[in-house]
C-alpha cells in the first residue's frame, strides 16, 4: 500500500485521535517478521511497541490507559487468543489448535460490503492468560521481550508469523494475554482459503507441530 492509499485506510483514520508515536511502512515487499524484527532493538527498550494491521480501527477512548494496564499483567498483549493446551496440526489457525472453552477476547467486524454495519466476535472472557494471540494486534513490553532475545520467525512472511512468535515467547517464559481494547477489523480471516496459507500451514506444522 502506498502513502496515498494509506490515507484512506481504517488505521489512518483513527491514528490522529490516539495521540501516539507511530510509523507506517509503505509499499512493503518484505515479510512482516523481517520488518517487525527491525523494531526489536534497545532503542525501543522503554516503550510499549504495538504492531497492528492497516485494516484495523482502534476506537477505544482509553487506548493508552488500557495499554499501560495490560502491560502490568502481560508481556505480550493481544485482542483475541487461546490458552493451552495446544494441538499444533493442520489446519493450524490459532482458533483451530486450541480448545474452544479456552478462547478469549473480542473484536468487531464490518459486515460484508457495508461501511458502518458491524458485529462483534466474542471468543471468551478477557483479560486472560493465553499461549497464542492473533497477530492483527500485538503489543509488546519491550523491556521484557528484549531480555529474552525472542524474535519473529522470518521463515513466515505473513501467515503463521503470529503463532510462531507466540510459541517462541511462551517457551521463553514471557506472559501472553488478551485485554479488552475496543477495535474493529475489516478482515474476516478468509485468507485460509488461499494456496499461500496452505503452503505456510505445511511449513508451520512441520516446524512447530506436536
Describe the secondary structure blueprint for this structure.
Layout: H1 3-6, H2 10-18, H3 32-37, E1 48-52, E2 56-58, H4 63-73, E3 76-78, E4 80-82, E5 103-110, E6 118-124, E7 128-130, E8 132-133, E9 137-141, H5 142-148, H6 161-171, E10 176-178, E11 183-185, H7 195-208
Give a verbal description of the structure.
By secondary structure, this protein is α+β, with helices and mostly antiparallel strands. The chain has one domain (about 5-210): Spore Coat Polysaccharide Biosynthesis Protein SpsA, Chain A (Alpha-Beta Complex), CATH 3.90.550. It has 7 helices and 11 strands. The strands form 2 sheets. Strands 2, 4, 5, 6, 8 and 11 form a 6-stranded mixed beta sheet that branches. It has a 5-stranded mixed beta sheet with strand order 1-9-3-10-7. Strand 5 and strand 6 form a beta hairpin. The termini are far apart. The mean pLDDT is about 90.
